[in-house]
Amino acid sequence: MRHNHYDEQTFFDQYAQMSRSQEGLSGAGEWWQLKPLLPSLEGKRVLDLGCGYGWHCKYAADQGAKEVLGLDLSEKMIAEARRRNAHPVITYQVGALEQYDYPEGRWDCVVSNLTLHYIADLEGIYRQIRRTLTPDGVFIFNIEHPVFTAGVGQDWAYGEDGKPLYWPVDDYFLPGERKTHFLGSEVIKQHHTLTQILMGLLDAGFALEAVVEARPSEEMVPLMPDELRRPMMFLVRARVK
Amino acid sequence: MRHNHYDEQTFFDQYAQMSRSQEGLSGAGEWWQLKPLLPSLEGKRVLDLGCGYGWHCKYAADQGAKEVLGLDLSEKMIAEARRRNAHPVITYQVGALEQYDYPEGRWDCVVSNLTLHYIADLEGIYRQIRRTLTPDGVFIFNIEHPVFTAGVGQDWAYGEDGKPLYWPVDDYFLPGERKTHFLGSEVIKQHHTLTQILMGLLDAGFALEAVVEARPSEEMVPLMPDELRRPMMFLVRARVK
Predict the structure, then answer these.
(1) Which of A37, A163, A166 best tests the B interface by mutation, with the highest count of B CBs <10 A?
(2) pLDDT classification of B83: cutoffs 50, 70, 90
(3) Which terminus of chain A, N or C, has fewer Cβ atoms within 10 Å?
(4) CA gap B55, B141 in Å, rounded
């Protein structure tokens, strides 16, 4: 079983302080770009891989989805989702993405926000997702950007004045484990190249409908100017072909 | 008229020393990945945007293309193409990509190798290419990778021992002009984000068929290990939708 940082108390408590935890979708920097990628969810079946606090599940339910399954490896996260974002059509379930059974043609829409960069076998998961989607099904995800995951220590290089000099990239074509520090804990992520992220989808039988790098909205730029200096997240909408 | 480095004598002479100039396609590091992206060219009409010495035009002719047009801004390059890679079905023509008239439904295949990172209005060119392609036409290109064009000075950061420390990225979301040094000259390139490169294609009415980052082949890795440390080029096959 993969180690799950989100069940460490320190990490969990720190995560609870993030604006995406306190404010939900409106506090998530990428939501303004992710939301328009979602199809109409009215009457749809939605699977959320790595649902965390369940904000996207709740959004789907509020949009009229008829059934939503939120899956997350972390018991603490699932407990939090049940507490904060319960809804009659939503089921929250503790489990690893790699261990879910992905029944054939079961879901109209699969969503995964900031989870796939913890998955080593991206191609394997893609194939499973392809299989569990209905013939016209849509897969929308947000993964950490390869420029970010290939960042040296996933941090800036700093000048003597303590300010970010630039974003250092290395070992780009050596995908796999990256040990990083996030919210005071050591966190292991998986670096995937852009080729793996996109060709993997094409090879699994998806058509690419949108490929968007997350960046701050115009009103947020003055608050986080450094976020224009390197990409951090990568949003994709793919459809069963 | 855009300034054309390739017509400066110094730059031209230096370019002539590169293995891609001396050996043609087999001397181009990306050819082993670009070649499999090309469709059958037997009986096809092929347009090469930024044909340089004409290697790809000659390849298309040798594969049975019935008509090939090689376009390049540089008079010197076109003279060289006519000298080295003449063929009865090939026409070489001096001209800017932005000024070609892109007749509707005129070409079955458009190829562009290492030229689009000199183009400021990528979306505009995409629309023109879409228009000049036949209904099932294919557009294959190789553009410098956004990680490369957003590189600080498009060079490594070096350690005290003079070896590359890492590849520094900055101002990623500020696309446009980048002044760089290449083959002893100052060369102006255009940085485009990945979103611009790929969403631009989708928005122009293309389906993405392949998205591949160039990397050294297994036998070349020992000769150029640093090329695994950051991506330099980005290959795409797109088809009219």
Answers:
(1) A166
(2) very high
(3) N
(4) 14
